[in-house]
Amino acid sequence: MLSIGLIKEAHERIRPRIHRTPVITSRSFDEASRRQVFFKCENFQRAGAFKIRGATNKILSLTEGEKRRGVVAFSSGNHAQAVALAAGEAGVRAVVAMPDDAPKLKVAATRAYGAEIVFYDRHGEDREAVAHAIAEREHLVMVPPYDDYLVMAGQGTSALEFLDEVPDLDCILAPCSGGGLFAGVSTAAKGIRPEIRCFAVEPETGDDTRQSFIK
What we know:
Elements lengths: L3 H11 L8 E3 L1 H7 L4 E3 L10 H10 L3 H6 L1 E4 L3 H13 L3 E6 L4 H9 L3 E5 L6 H12 L2 E2 L6 H17 L5 E5 L4 H13 L4 E5 L6 H7 L1
């Protein structure tokens, strides 16, 4: 189960392999919003996104036998790069299922980090099914992009750092997408500061999470 304890353990585990990303402010943003706003800049994280936190925590938590077998993931970019980098540094084989129209720069980065790439047609194939078939055929361990407690705990370490630097935050907004980041961030934030309010956000034109609640 996801808990503040699991997130703190994750932070100790991954701390040597991640950046403690900066928290910045913007006077013009504060003036426009009429609030004091702080930004936790995970765009400065290794591999370019928060995803390295969850991937690293998951891979470092594997048993020695699982590490010898290797891992598999599915992603069009950020998670692919994170798994490739985390696995490479841990000496673990990584296979990543990516759509054949994935951004070329992200494909190149994933390959440069040492992962093997299997392409699929996003219009005719299901990415999870492709990855699970690879896992079953080659006896690899799945590293999901979000639906895994160890991955969520890794993502939640960003909130530990955030609240350590700005302890009196009264509200946190985090992207929801698949939900892994928001689950980790909200669990960490509530575990440290129970009165804090946490909001999941997504693009107005890509509001699949909101629509799922309506349906």
